[in-house]
Amino acid sequence: MEKLVADLKEILPFKQTTGVGDVVIVVAKEPQLLTYAMISKIERDDTRKNEWWHVTMQFLTIPLQEVTWTLRTPQFTGQEIFTMGGEGRFIQAVDFNFEDEAVQPEPIKGSTPIPMKKGIRRIK
Phi and psi for 7 in degrees, rounded to 5? Predict the structure, then answer.
């Protein structure tokens, strides 16, 4: 499990925080699982002394599945691998902000750039 998480951290852009609306990667050892989920709700669990949270997420599978797990902050922000029912789990939000990494095409040598018209054009 630790090797898989380390490999994922090398290839995916992860966020340090997790909030409502974030897409997270969920990894489970048993049952073997590697999928995306969207966080739909995070609510404090007032029945416990320490900070625990009810984290509701929608697994992005067919059919969609909603689950609520009770977790501590380090568990749903990728700071630690944790267990549920004795089996390893990992959750961390993926950073989909690719604006800084946008690749602009280079112009072909000897050609003049074609100006792009803005707006919507109706094609008949």
Answer: -65, -40
The total number of residues shown for the chain amounts to 124
The closest of 2, 12, 72, 3 to 36, measured between CA atoms, is 12
- The pTM of this model reads 0.73
Query: For 5-19, b where at least 16 C-beta lie within 10 A, e where not — what string?
Result: beebeeeeeebeebe
DSSP string of 83-122, one letter each residue: EETTEEEEEEEB----GGGPPPPPPPTT-PPPPPPPS---
Q: What is the pLDDT of residues 41-54, one digit of tens each?
A: 999 999 987 889 99
C-alpha 71/C-alpha 83 separation (Å) is 10
